[in-house]
Specification:
The chain is of the alpha/beta class. The chain is built from 29 helices and 29 strands.
Length: 874
């Protein structure tokens, strides 16, 4: 029998009993005893009246005595010891079940990843969640702190990992498994990611390739290699057998993008030995056309006006003009509509008109090419305006006086005052009839029918009158503006699946005078006629909008049709509502994967129906989604990244990114060039090009000349054909430059004003009835367009503005990013002028001609300087 070694603790100690064991710590923090729970052989409690004694016998033969517990502590100590024994026994039973559960989950996840390539949200929400909850072992003691301490400090790694899974959720489990599996794939198959594209994929690109979740949005910075990701992702999905080639479709924005993507896939797949012939690469329209012919109407055809690259604009314009010429039921309301407001780019917030009643009537008569003289000598305050209406230019048959009055009063004495003649003086017959309308009659349009009847009775020919009027450039221009608005309205209405009947019901239900007013109602009635005429013009065929809408309709009628397992979409920021509806139907099968790539910072196509919220609220449209970002650009210098990102990020409604360039220039990134006047711009461009060529020092370079408008081409016509520059420059609008790049960019004209950059011209507010809602940030789309322009450059962007019409954007960039200004002193003769303007000192004087002879004039309209020309001997 061995003797026991007794250690007694009387004062200055603290006893801790836990699953970790028995721990005695002095008041000074010194660890005096640390014995595991398994090392305790026996614990005995005894009461001696004034205190409670605890005796602990250890398996190594030692005895620990604690004689100074307060009296009555026995019950608490017994309960604590019992609790620890209960937890220990529970863990002993729980851990084997936990490990078995974890092995089963891991095995299922491994098999699912092997088959599907990813633990998708769909699998997680259904199969994994059921498996997780149904087989998860119960452990009521899990919330006790001792259990957490046990798994944190005692349990082995396998049990610890299993308990982490047990404590988590199916979503967390899937996320952690995908993270670990992705890291393993990137290591194991590193050679694939090195060679599948011409340049090795970056880690952020490779992670986007491997992520095959149900819905994945890839936010790609400008020049970040998003096409490489699409090609590599398709290759990865096919090479590892996750999808069959015929079940994969890649959707690009236009036919050019489709051709480039198809060529890229053919080259890269062929090199890697991956079959690509059955992979479908389509535009939205081509894909819609095929679906409609397969499920709906095999005989449906695209109208001939849309073949061979046509867009139907010319045919639409001709159709509308023909309606105005030959159909009075359209012509008269259309001309009255154009008389209501001074521009198709404005609409009254309060409702009906911008013009006064007299102004409406004057413009309506002018539209009809009616001969009239405005009369002087208005007798009383009841008369608002008065016109003398006559038949023809010979003025030999006066018809009647047309008087606009505040209210109808009893017949007045005939007015014999001589009219103020706008036309040449002739002997006119005395007017014998007065026709009256109130201002309300004119503003409501109720005057039209009686006025037309009166004019027809007097012998007016409306068809010949309007034909004569349309020969005048100003009227033709204004009418074309109305027709273009109607064309845009038709396109957006179809994109939004809105018929004329639906829009009319919406109008009738609208109570706000901002929309429920004469102008809106009249426009919708005209639109109904346009819609029907356009349908007849299609002659049984369909247009591009019909392609999308018909495919949506047939897919809704065939819920069993699931043609694809992987749908990949480029330019997600330009998806319209009709395209988004089509996508939702293509991926409605829970097992179908959707991969969309785009950059909301480059969303510049609202005019063609693009809805930026499809990307910014991707999960709202398509359900739970992952979002990854490509933030490394291979195009722009870090300096361009810094300036452009700060500029575009002022709009906080967009997705935030931290764009990084792979090189630095340590020079200004966006340089503003102040020209003195418009005629100097071509010479400024030439000076910049010579500066760029000198800086390149013999290296091959490219320069992109960008215009906000097609009309900006006039500034570069000579340069494009100049032998010094023609091999390094190309001109296009900023819209068409998207997706392209050059060493340098010159934005040829960015000024303030209606046709500036940003453009101050707004669409007719009637289009808001059918167009997607824009974000409220000022000039949001113009800002994105400017961002697209300056990020086409690898090294530097130059922006040309005018000293007194500087663009708000260049002012902002130079104010916040501290970029620099340039100014060149250009002799006036270099710009084809005579001399510098002596009045404003910025403009250039040119020799002009008027009906009074030759004169000098400053090119700046704001200046107004003129001087008479006295000949070459001056």
């Amino acid at each position: 029998m061995t003797s026991e070694k007794v250690t007694q603790y009387r004062k200055g100690w603290n006893l801790n009993l836990s699953l970790l064991g028995l721990e005695v710590v002095s008041d000074g923090g010194e660890l005096m005893e640390n014995e595991s729970l398994d090392s305790i052989s026996e614990a005995v409690l005894s009461e001696n009246g004034s205190a409670t004694r605890l005796s602990v016998r250890l398996r190594n033969g030692r005895m620990l005595e604690f004689p100074d517990f307060p009296a009555g502590s026995s019950q608490n100590i017994r309960e604590r010891l019992h609790e620890l024994q209960e937890i220990k026994a529970g863990l002993a039973a729980f851990i084997p079940e936990l490990l078995q559960w974890h092995r089963k989950l891991t095995s299922c996840l491994k098999e699912e990843f092997r088959i599907s390539g990813y633990i998708t949200d769909t699998y997680t929400e259904n199969a994994l969640k059921d498996l997780f909850l149904e087989t998860r072992p119960e452990f009521p003691l899990a919330e006790k702190p001792e259990v957490g301490d046990y798994f944190a400090e005692i349990a082995d790694a396998a049990a610890r990992k299993a308990f982490e899974y047990w404590q988590g959720t199916p979503e967390r489990l899937a996320k952690e498994y995908n993270k670990a599996a992705t890291a393993g794939i990137l290591r194991k198959y590193a050679p694939f990611f090195q060679i599948i594209e011409k340049s090795p994929l970056t880690e952020e690109q490779a992670r986007a390739v491997v992520n095959l979740n149900t819905n994945l949005l890839l936010v790609a910075s400008a020049g970040s290699g998003k096409t490489s990701v699409m090609v590599a992702k398709a290759a990865y999905a096919l090479l590892f057998g996750y999808f069959k080639p015929s079940r994969v479709v890649l959707i690009a924005y236009n036919r050019k993008a489709v051709a480039e993507l198809r060529q890229r896939i053919r080259e890269r797949f062929s090199q890697a030995g991956i079959p690509w012939e059955q992979v479908q690469i389509e535009t939205f329209h081509a894909l819609s056309y095929k679906i409609t012919r397969k499920l709906g109407n095999p005989g449906i055809v695209l109208s001939k006006m849309f073949r061979d690259g046509g867009d139907g604009t010319r045919e639409f314009m001709d159709m509308a003009r023909d309606l105005i010429r030959r159909k009075e039921a359209f012509r008269i309301p259309a001309l009255f509509f154009c008389s209501l407001s001074p521009s198709m780019n404005t609409n009254s917030k309060a409702g009906a008109t911008w013009r006064s009643a007299a102004g409406i009537l004057e413009h309506f008569l002018d539209w009809l090419n009616i001969c009239y003289d405005e009369k002087d000598g208005i007798r009383d305050e009841n008369t608002i305006a008065e016109y003398l209406i006559f038949n023809d230019d010979d003025c030999d048959a006066v018809s009647f006086i047309l008087r606009v009055v505040a209210k109808i009063t009893p017949d007045e004495p005939e007015d014999t005052a001589q009219p103020r003649r706008k036309k040449k003086k002739k002997n006119r017959k005395k007017p014998g009839e007065v026709v009256k309308f109130t201002a309300n009659d004119i503003e409501s349009g109720s005057f039209i029918v009686p006025l037309v009847k009166c004019l027809r009775k007097k012998g007016f020919s409306f068809r010949s009158s309007i034909n004569e009027r349309l020969k005048k450039p100003q009227q033709s221009y204004e009418l074309d503006g109305f027709i273009r608005t109607m064309r845009s309205f038709l396109t957006h209405a179809k994109n939004s699946l809105l018929t004329p009947e639906m829009l009319w019901e919406k109008y009738l239900a609208e109570k706000s005078p901002e929309w429920h007013n004469l102008r809106t109602g009249l426009f919708l009635k005209l639109f109904r006629q346009i819609y029907r005429a356009w349908t007849r013009l299609l002659d049984g065929g369909i247009d591009f909008e019909d392609m999308l809408n018909l495919s949506v309709q047939v897919l809704e009628r065939h819920p069993e049709f699931h043609p694809y397992d992987l749908v990949m979409v480029d330019e997600a920021q330009d998806i319209s509502l009709s395209r988004a509806r089509l996508l939702k139907l293509l991926v409605r099968n829970p097992e179908t994967r959707l991969f969309a790539v785009g950059d909301d910072w480059q969303s510049i196509n609202r005019f063609s129906g693009a809805v930026i919220s499809v990307m910014s609220d991707f999960a709202g449209f398509f359900g739970q989604s992952d979002m990854l970002k490509l933030e490394t650009t291979f195009r722009c210098s870090q300096e361009i990244c810094d300036v452009s990102s700060a500029f575009i990020s002022r709009n906080k409604s967009q997705i935030a990114k931290n764009v990084r360039g792979i090189f630095q220039t340590k020079t200004p990134a966006v340089v503003t060039v102040n020209a003195d006047c418009d005629p100097e711009i071509p010479e400024v461009i030439a000076i910049l090009l010579r500066k760029i060529i000198k800086e390149a020092a013999g290296k091959k370079i490219s320069v992109m000349l960008l215009g906000r408008y097609n009309d900006d081409r006039k500034y570069v016509k000579k340069i494009l054909n100049h032998p010094e520059f023609r091999n390094i420059v190309q001109f296009m609008t900023v819209h068409k430059s998207k997706g392209l790049e050059a060493d340098y960019v010159i934005i040829v004209r960015a000024t303030s004003g209606i046709l500036g950059f940003p453009c101050n011209m707004t669409d007719d507010r009637l289009l808001d009835l059918v167009m997607p809602e824009s974000d409220s940030f000022p000039y949001s789309e113009e800002r994105r367009l400017f961002y697209v322009g300056i990020t086409r450059a690898r090294i530097r962007s130059y922006v040309i503005t005018l000293w007194d019409e500087e663009s708000e954007f260049t002012e902002e960039i130079n104010g916040t990013a501290r970029q620099s200004y340039l100014h060149f002193d250009i002799p006036p003769e270099k710009s084809g002028g005579i001399d510098r303007c002596p009045l404003c000192h910025h403009g250039i004087t040119f020799l002009r001609q008027s009906k009074y002879g030759y004169f000098y004039a400053c090119c700046r309209f704001k200046c107004g300087y003129t001087k008479k020309y006295y000949g070459d001997d001056e």
